[in-house]
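Quick note —
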Amino acid sequence: MWPFSNIFTLSSLAFHLFDPFHETDRPHERATLSEAHIHLTPTFHNEHGAATGINISMILRDPKAHSGLALLTLPLEVGPTPSARYDGNAIIATDNLGLLELRIQDGQGLDPWRKWIPSRDPDGDVVFTFFAPPRQVNKSTPAGPRIDLQATQGGLFGKGLGFLPYPLAEEDWSITLEWHLQHAPEGTRAAWSIGDELVQTIIGHPKNMIGDTFYAVGPLSRWPDWNSGETARCKTYWIGKSPWDMQTVAAQSSSIFETISRFFTDTDQDQYAVFFRQVPNSFGGTGGHLSFLIEYIPDDESGYADISISQILAHEILHSYPMMPIEDSADNGWYVEGVAEYYSVIFLYRDGIMSKKEFVDTSNKMMQGYYTNPVVNRDMTSILDHYWESIFNMRVPYGRGWIYLLQANGLVVEATGGRKSVDDLVLELYRRQMRRDPHDSDVFVNLLGDLIGREKAKKSFEGMWRGDLIVPSSAALAADGLRVRREDCFPFELGFEYRSGYVRELVEGSRAEKAGVQEDDEILGLLSVWSAADTYLFEMEASLKRNATVEKIRWWPRGHGKTECWWWEEDETSGLGEL
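Predicted structure written out below.
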């Protein structure tokens, strides 16, 4: 998931399922596979034709289930984002004997799951019918993992985890998805992460192919155009206008995908899908199987048209390649987000999409984002335990993971005389991932130790985890003609707690207070805190209501005492003015 306004491929760390990129077709197993047939029939408003939800029929053939064994599962929520849940008898099940009563079992703890368990042994095929309503959201809806089904611009976009329960299984299934658009308004199109035919079948694990994929229906535009006759492995889908030239963005998505694909020696002909959906409350993205989704605010209200969309695209596509298992533990999240941050910049520079000046400036924005984070020295265990409580906790896996990989690259380059780099570690981990061999943080440290020495590798990793300040050596980017230098800067300080919708815990003497912000002001609008933390000279603006009067206040969201910072430079530094 890319870090803007809780851009957590927010669901990347909190919930990025292990989905081997090419483990989708096993012909020798097809004869024994269980089958799922999913029928999606969108509903539309009688007057203006906008999509209002989806009637769903799911048929499980040979589900290998019995009384007491769950047939379907769905998360109740992921972080602050709820799923459709389907409380009570919202899901109706039948089989050869008629009505099959279902018992609901809910898990406990962080991101609990719901299971639907049959009251008796199923007889033959099991048919589930239910209606998926779009989640109601507005400008005040907290940003979170982008799994929910939402109505936007006359259509619907959503991730399976948010509205489509899937069979609870250990093995691969044959999964057929069929869209029914016979009664849809003229011009209605539909797409799935796997493709945009009305009927498609794929072999794979239900969790990956149903839960971790995206669905869209409505007046969809596509690149390449629906009627162009052109083909591309990477397709892009959207509705209406966005802050960007979508033809350019879509072509760039395809180019970036091919570059990343070549690096990881991908020779398969998998399709890849990019979805853009307009939302009222946040900007960000989240990855899925063979796909990702980017959200944006209408009319460019947050100024995100200036953000390097190419870096976001690269970050999200990377989530389909180098991964570490985090389904049962977030301890590997530093790598999941860190490696996407690292290569999102490196690949754009190597591929010529980003100039050297842009590479230096972007790297320095990321450097100051790491060093000026108020929780830069907090232990990673504490960060993960309190992850959703603070946007600054959410930023840590991205920034700390990225700069630790930079440090590791410098250590490897120095130890091997430039013969090897962190690329070798990442590619080896990816090969192990594809073989389904262990590929977690312990393996990374062992591989790093093979190149720089076990004690040195262990010490560097433990320091990263502990929250020791990380300063990469100049060797990390020496091949690009860069070196590090120190120039301290002011840490980020918003000046108050803002998640409640009101100004709370206003910091006395802060720049926010001096600008006129007062305790208990109602926050009607606030520029992206994530973007402000990324850009050193970003000026914060808030629309505040006090005693029936609305006022816009601007201030520089930085503290007063400087903190240690390091920067990349060529022969001459460009200074902080451009950051």
